[in-house]
Structures are given as structure tokens and as C-alpha cells.
# Entry
Amino acid sequence: MNIFFDVDNTLIARDGSLRPFVPQVFERLIGEGHRIYVWSGVGLRWEVVEQHRLRPYVSDVFVKPMYDHHNSLRLLGVSVKPDFCVDDHPEVIGAFGGVTVWPYEDPDPLDREMERVYQTVQGLVKARLNGG
# Structure
């Protein structure tokens, strides 16, 4: 699957710190054959990918459509079809499918949203394999 992750309040907090378990979940997803993409409504965010050493896991970075989601993909140069999205904005999930995460505004070492994301992807893959 092509899995698209939002940046602000999804992967990083307001202070720029990385949400717990992001590298571990990315590594597992890549190991299972998924492709990871990062996108943001405020532009290309390669600096976040590089700063947090996520480059080995990320296939590409795009600008995220903020409205007219499907029609905006081509206009924004998104060359890959999102199969599953992870975002703190439910309207993006409503447009493309995936999972809405609790906004990660401040650092919290007890946060387990990325593990929930991984379990959701696992459940979807299992359901598809079983004809669901």
C-alpha cells in the first residue's frame, strides 16, 4: 500500500519533536512491502524527514491537498495514489481513507498513536487477504 503521513501534529509536535515510535512503525511497514510518503499542507517537508533520519523509509514527499482533495492531486504533482492516509484532520481521511490520529501537539513519551496506526494497517491487510 501507498501510505501517506501528514507532518504537523501527526508526525511531529509544535516544537518539532518526533512522535514516539515513528521510525519503528515506518521500518515495520517498509519491511512488509508498504511504501511511505510524507505530505503537508504547508509545502514539501524534506527537512523534517532529514532531521529525524526518516529518509531510509520515505519514498517521496509531496504537498497535501487541503480541499478538492482528489482533483488537487495532479495539480500539486502528487504522482502516487494514496491507498491509506494518516492525519490529524478527519477530512483528509474522509477523502482518501485511513486513520485519524489524536493531534500530537506537545511531546508525550506515553503517546501510542503510531502503534495504533500500525495495528490498523495490519487489520486492513488481513481483511483484504481474507476477501474483505
Remarks:
- The chain has a mean pLDDT of 95.
- Residues 2-129 form a domain with the Rossmann fold fold (CATH 3.40.50.1000).
- The two ends are 16 Å apart (CA to CA).
